Amino acid sequence: MVELRKIRPLTHRRPKKQAGFFTALFQFALKALPNLRATAPPGHEHASPVITGPLVDSVRLLQQAADQNNTDAIYLLGQFNFYGNYSHPRNFKAAFDHYYRLASQHGNSSAQYMVGLMYATGVGDAVPRDQAKALLYHTFAADQGHTRSEMTVAARHMNGIGVPKNCEVACKYYKRVADKAMAWFRSGPPGGMTIVPEAYRLSDEVGGVYGEGASFISSGINALKASPNSDVYASIDDVIEYLDLMSQKGDFKASFNLGRLYYEGQRGLERNVDLARRYFLSVTSKYWRSKDGRSIDGAKPQLEKTASKAAGYIGRMWLRGEGIGQDFKTAQKWFERGIKHGDAQSQWGLGLMYLHGYGVRKNVAKATELFKAAADQDFSLAHVALGALHLDQGQPEDLKIANSYFEAAARWHNLEAQYYLAEMIHHGVGRDKTCSVAMQYYKNVAERSETLVSSWTEANQAYEDGDIELAFLDYVMAAEQGYEKAQNNVAFLLDPTHSVLALPDWLKRQAPKPRLLQNAALALIYWTRSAIQSNIDSLVKMGDYYLSGIGTEVALDKAAQCYTGASEYFQSAQALYNLGWMHENGVGLTQDFHLAKRYYDQALETNEEAYLPVTLSLLKLRVRSAWNTFTHGRINSIQDEPGKS
Questions:
Q1: Burial status of residue 245 (CB atoms within 10 A of its CB: 0-12, 13-18, 19 or more)
Q2: What are the residues facing 269 on neighbouring strands?
Q3: 14 DSSP assignment
Q4: Phi-psi label, residue 342: left if phi above 0, alpha if psi -120 to 50, beta otherwise
Q5: Can you say whether the dihedral through the CA atoms of 591, 594, 597, 601 is positive or negative?
Q6: Closest Cα to residue 364, out of 349, 352, 378?
Q7: Model confidence over 278-321: pLDDT tens digits?
Q8: Are 219 and 609 in contact (CB under 8 A)?
Q9: Residue 157 CA to chain centroid, in angstroms?
Q10: Residue pLDDT, tens place only, 164-195
């Protein structure tokens, strides 16, 4: 099958450093550094730059401090050389030397993490890949509480990377991170921290690793689920523009949807609670009078439900102090408006106020009543609140009820519900102890707390800024922590069959990849890890690498295994087609024209967009099969399939 690969071009948060004796020196040094990113053009190798200006003095001062064994200076020099901060050239060998010195002589967990990362990936060719040493240093860091190393160690024990699989050990480390994640989540305003997901696959933006229609993610049933007519393919800017136009025409549903989009936020759309509140108020003002809160005469009946939902959001903002000062009385007023018309969020919000005594006298019975009303409308936050109340009772019957509430909330991917389930299963409270299930719940909680535990935000920002190498480094960190989407991103950036540089249509010669991104062997490693986490396109990619000897020796049997696994249940037309090609040509599989035709037919059945390449292949195959029959060849020719009885 002809693979039409559509390519588009693909800020870093540094770990906290320990306090040292040369604080004044570092303040001077950092002030002297220009607030600039690397000066080399995005996507190109850093030429041998000449460090000039204040940076010369700053690096010299840091080196002097490092020579005096100052840990802050050593770590900062490692960061400069690894990331190329402030126009400092990247030098991975120098970075490794600084990290290794700090890790081995001082036991610094951040340095141990970086040494483990560099041994795990061999990034920049500073050191050869050594998974045993990687695990050793990550374990040292994890045992000191380094969160990213804890996740890395957990992922390695879960998947058997450099160590035999061990669910108990993986669960232990994932639980550590999940415990931190929940402490962070609950440290926020009433209802917990707001989490805006940042993780996504770069390849999904272009229809998958094989392009639109050829990838599993964008073909067959998946193409139907996200057709070009749906807003999945529309940019968020187009959606906002359309809804804003409808809102200006008086469409209260469009106003409400705009408010919800701005309140919740998403990748590509930052949260804007002030703007969200304005849109919600534009809805409520059409239904309630501003002075006495009475409904406006002649208000449209269908406006009632939407206005009550908007009231629930406004009450939530006052309760949490989002974009406005926290005011429990005002929050209660808006919640009561929403409750009059059965809004679930308002019922939950007022229930939370009675449960904790926010501006009202604590009344657990009344809170429970409100939570139940919201839970009856399948409001996940109410399910969690009720589950927690029953869990506190500790009785066998209450534990069963708590479990059912948490499972109901987990269906909506509620973070707190997943944590409660993990705890119950891990400790055998109201549930049978099952390591694999508990581990998966802990993993979900840990991975979803992206702001706390990962480099996703920095990676995405660098990618959008066009700094592909920096994005790659940050994606590698997340990939080593076990994020499947990051593993897919790293492999996609390293894939030698793709260009990571945006080229005009008239420019036919492909620009060379930066040296940092020329590592097909590492690409295969991450395609493999992504495939282990059930990514079908990554599994097909593995087959391609083994078939063509990309980043490894040719292994036709492994290629056939990958394609067969991806073709099960007709999941990948690309894999089915490749199996047909292998049977047609006797590459890695028995040459069999009849089986080749069967696989080609199944590829077309799986994805109708494969019509042209499959049809051309079938025409060629029939000619070859006819000649084989005419010459009494030994290859099994195409035969009529037996009819169904």
A1: exposed
A2: 266
A3: P
A4: left
A5: negative
A6: 352
A7: 999 999 999 998 766 788 876 777 899 999 999 999 999 999 99
A8: yes
A9: 21
A10: 999 999 999 999 999 999 999 999 999 999 99
Q: Which two tokens stand for residue 89?
A: 């050239």
Which residues, other chains included, contact 636 with Cβ-Cβ below 8 Å and sequence gap of 6+?
A: 592, 593, 594, 595
In 3D, which of 183, 197, 181, 13 has the Cα closest to residue 110? 13
Determine the Cα–Cα distance for residues 296 and 274; give it in Å rounded to an integer.
25
In the predicted model, is pLDDT for residue 501 greater than 70?
A: no
Q: How far apart are CA 517 and CA 501, in angstroms?
A: 11
CA 514 to chain centre: 25
d(CA 537, CA 575) in angstroms, rounded, equals 9
| SS3 label, residue 636 | strand
The whole-angstrom distance between residue 250's C-alpha and the CA centroid of its chain comes to 37
Q: What is the 3-state secondary structure (H, E, C) of 576-623?
A: HHHHHHHHHHCCCCCCEHHHHHHHHHHHHHHCHHHHHHHHHHHHHHHH
pLDDT at residue 38 above 60? no
Percent of the chain clearing pLDDT 90 (strictly above): 77
**How far apart (Å, rounded) are the C-alpha atoms in residues 447 and 609?**
35
The overall average pLDDT reported for the chain is 88
Q: pTM (2 decimals)?
A: 0.87
| Residue type present at position 545 | Y
pLDDT at residue number 520:
96
Cα–Cα nearest to 43, from 4, 72, 8, 91 = 8
**Which pair of structure tokens corresponds to residue 54?**
């204040």
Percentage of the chain modeled with pLDDT above 70 = 86
Find the farthest-apart pair of alpha carbons in the chain and give their distance in angstroms, rounded. Answer: 94
**What would the pLDDT profile of 84-141 be if each residue is shown by its tens digit?**
876 788 999 999 999 999 999 999 999 999 999 999 999 999 999 999 999 999 999 9
Sign of CA dihedral 213, 215, 217, 221: positive
Distance CA 386, CA 392 (A): 10
Within 8 A by CB and 6+ apart from 418, the residues are 410, 441, 444, 445
Contact (CB, 8 A) for 404 and 412: no
- Whether 612 and 603 have beta carbons less than 8 Å apart is answered as no
Checking phi first, is residue 323 left (phi over 0); if not, alpha (psi -120 to 50) or beta?
Answer: left
Question: CA angle, corner 196, sides to 193 and 198, nearest 5?
Answer: 135
pLDDT in tens, 429-467: 999 999 999 999 999 999 999 999 999 999 999 999 999
- Is a pLDDT exceeding 90 seen at residue 219? no
In one-letter notation, the amino acid at residue 408 is A
Q: Quick one: average pLDDT of 399-417?
A: 97
Beta carbons within 10 angstroms of residue 187's beta carbon: 9
Write down the pLDDT at residue 229: 44
- What residues are paired with 288 via a beta bridge? 295
CA distance 606 to 213: 11
Burial class (CB within 10 angstroms; exposed 0-12, middle 13-18, buried 19+) of 291: exposed
Is the CA virtual torsion 249, 251, 254, 256 positive or negative?
A: positive
